[in-house]
Write a structure and sequence with these properties.
With about 625 residues, the protein is an alpha+beta fold. Helix content is about 20%, strand content about 15%. The chain has helices at about 30-35, 75-80, 155-160, 280, 285-295, 305-320, 330-345, 435-440, 445-465, 480-500, 540-555, 600-605, and strands at about 40-45, 50, 70, 85, 100, 105-110, 115, 140, 140-145, 150-155, 180, 190-195, 205, 245, 255-260, 360, 375-395, 420-435, 505-510, 520-525. The strands form five sheets. Strands 3, 4, 15, 16, 17, 18, 19 and 20 form an eight-stranded mixed β-sheet that branches. Strands 1-2-5 form a three-stranded antiparallel β-sheet, with no helix packed on it. A three-stranded antiparallel β-sheet has the order 7-6-8, with no helix packed on it. Helix 10 (about 480-500) packs across helix 11 (about 540-555).
Length: about 625
């Protein structure tokens, strides 16, 4: 991040100082406030380090003026909120933007080697320099965290004094001053040396501090601190084991993101005119009783017509699971995808599109039979779409997608009825694979064996990441899923060449369960590469046929072959097979699964077994 010029002091209408006069430390893109630098994450700005503050300061940086409200009814209902808010942003100097706090507080001076809290260096106001040496201070490279989401300073004093009686002076009152220096011999932890001027302990290195039991052996457990909420918020009782992490590690902060496409009848993007009344309205099946309720609650005219209310009620009831037990969050989230798939298949060709309509999906005019030899069917031109991505919570150490009981840390101390989110508009192409041909192909023993190798490797990774391996989520790797995933990647690579879109501005959305076999490739970006019509033009059957054939032909050869196509395992812990950065991998912003579960052999076959490829027979000369 490059910090902007120093912020000018603003004055009010009467010349007085403004209510908030904070230093602007750096800039991030609006989308990064959801995906990379959300609440509770660490942000490095030049030589300083900060943590993004919680949402409890909504009356300031997350005010309606600086953080406009947006709506997506289906996602709001799933997450239990009334609305979403865009991250605060302003083109001028009138906005305070995201609030941050300095963290970690422990700093060292490269000149005098003192290691202490930032304020103890007596830096001049607004600067992070040693008050004695006048050189830039260095934030601690190390922090500690627990799997419940708490974050704390690395216990340097306990680490240095671990050879002494822990019962005496455990608060750090040994009368000495901590120092940190680097021997310069290597770049390993052994070269980072910590000492205390008390003279009671020898100088020790940071080697061994990343062991899982390193802090447990010191008798230290998590205190439950939440520095992103401020010093005034008391620590929670926790007691879980602590892990040492580098400040810039991806394990320090992992967002829990949930997204949904705006589809009819909730695709206008407007505020819900009947918010707060749906629970009562769902109790009524008779239109006459609904009409009576609306008469009692609203003056004429009603916010919506009776027909519109009935349509919305039917849509909500369709997404509710049947049975006596309440559906789980994951089940309801999957129901959102199911409805998107149904709407993408059906389209809305015959509807009269209003100006507020955010979803327009039409059948192409060309002859779709040209796609039959490829096993592709049902292409749809998504001329207009809107996606809302919301930051639900965050985790530390544990990936929320890998376990059923991940400890998700909320974004505020008190429950709020809103969450941060981004809305992106774009266009896309949706296509499906022929179910009959796909069903025969995925039952072939060689196909199932390749997918099983990836599934086993991925399941092993999920169990390693989970706190309790028995609670790890099942791997989604199936022949169908891997095929659709790899097909989406080669299409994105092809369209980045043919249609002029950068690959990072295209994104995949997979529909790959037992009753779904589709993929949506779309532009979902807030910049100029959003909705220009170029991608939709690629969805006409004749052009799509040429694109798929070209993409598959291009996937037949990789510059790393024969090593790539004959690899027994590749990628993270063997979660890929024939896939590498020279052939099918994409920028991480484009992929739903972090570039794993890919195998181009399921598209084209292998030299020893061409029939393992779904498209092999269609491309045979």
């Amino acid at each position: 991040m490059t910090p902007p010029p120093a912020r000018r002091r603003r004055t009010g209408a009467n010349g007085s100082a403004p209510r908030h006069n904070l230093l602007r430390r750096g800039t991030v893109r609006r989308a990064q406030a959801i995906t990379t630098y959300g609440v509770g994450s660490l942000v490095a700005v030049d030589h300083e380090s900060f943590i993004v503050s919680g949402l409890d300061e909504a009356d300031r940086s997350w005010s309606d003026r600086e953080a406009p409200r947006i709506h997506e009814r289906r996602l709001e209902r799933l997450l239990g909120v009334d609305h979403f808010r865009l991250p605060p942003a302003s083109d001028d100097d009138s906005s305070d933007g995201l609030r941050v706090r300095r963290f970690p507080l422990m700093h060292s001076c490269p000149e005098c080697h003192e290691l202490q809290r930032h304020r103890d260096f007596a830096p001049p106001p607004g600067r992070s320099v040693c008050g004695t040496c006048e050189v830039d201070l260095v934030p601690s490279r190390f922090v500690v965290a627990c799997e419940a989401g708490h974050l704390d300073e690395f216990p340097y004093w306990q680490w240095v004094h671990r050879s002494t009686d822990r019962g005496s002076g455990a608060s750090g009152n040994c009368g000495g001053q901590l120092r940190m220096r680097t021997s310069g011999r290597t770049s390993s932890l052994r070269s980072i040396l910590i000492s205390c001027t008390c003279g009671k302990v020898p100088e020790v290195s940071m080697e061994g501090s990343f062991r899982r039991s390193a802090l447990k052996d010191l008798g230290l457990t998590c205190r439950g601190t939440r520095p992103w909420l401020g010093a005034s918020v008391p620590a929670e009782g926790c007691g879980r084991p602590l892990r040492t992490l580098q400040r810039g590690s991806s394990s320090v902060w992992q967002p829990v993101l949930k997204s949904a496409l705006s589809i009819p009848p909730w695709s206008s993007g407007r505020a819900d005119p009947l918010a707060g009344h749906w629970e009562k309205l769902r109790k009524y099946d008779d239109p006459a009783r609904i009409e009576a309720y609306l008469d009692a609650v609203f003056d004429e005219p009603w916010p919506l017509s009776l027909d519109e209310v009935m349509t919305l009620l039917d849509a909500e009831r369709e997404e509710e699971a049947e049975g006596d037990t309440a559906p789980s969050f994951d089940h309801r989230y999957r129901a959102l995808r199911n409805k998107e798939y149904e709407r993408l298949r059906a389209g809305n060709d015959e509807s009269e599109h209003s100006r507020e309509e955010e979803f327009i999906c039409e059948t192409p005019l060309g002859d779709q039979s040209v796609l039959e030899p490829l096993g592709v069917t049902g292409p749809m031109l998504v001329k207009k779409l809107r996606e809302v991505r919301a930051l639900k919570a965050f985790t530390r150490l544990v990936d929320a997608e890998s376990t059923t009981d991940a400890k998700e840390m909320p974004l505020s101390e008190k429950p709020l009825r809103w969450l941060p989110a981004m809305e992106v508009r774009g266009e896309g192409v949706f296509l499906r694979l022929d179910e009959q041909r796909l069903g025969v192909w995925e039952k072939a023993p060689t196909v199932a064996a390749r997918a099983e190798r990836m599934r086993t490797a991925h399941q092993r990774v999920l169990e390693q990441r989970a706190d309790d391996p028995s609670r790890a989520v099942p791997s989604p790797a199936t022949p169908r899923m891997v095929l659709l995933h790899t097909l989406a990647h080669v299409l994105i690579n092809e369209w980045s060449l043919e249609a002029g879109y950068p690959a990072a501005s295209l994104r995949e959305r997979l529909y790959a369960t037992e009753d779904m076999a589709g993929v949506l490739v779309y532009t979902a970006t807030s910049d100029s590469a959003g909705s220009l019509g170029g991608l939709v033009a690629q969805g006409e059957p004749k052009r799509l046929d040429l694109t798929i054939r070209s993409a598959i032909r291009r996937a037949e050869w990789c510059s790393s072959d024969p090593l790539c196509v004959e690899a027994e395992a590749s990628g993270t812990a063997g979660t890929n097979l024939a896939a590498c950065h020279a052939c099918v991998m994409l920028p991480e912003t484009s992929c739903e699964h972090n570039n794993i579960l890919l195998d181009r052999a399921l598209l084209i076959g292998t030299p020893d077994d061409p029939e393992v490829g779904f498209f092999a027979s269609a491309l045979t000369p």
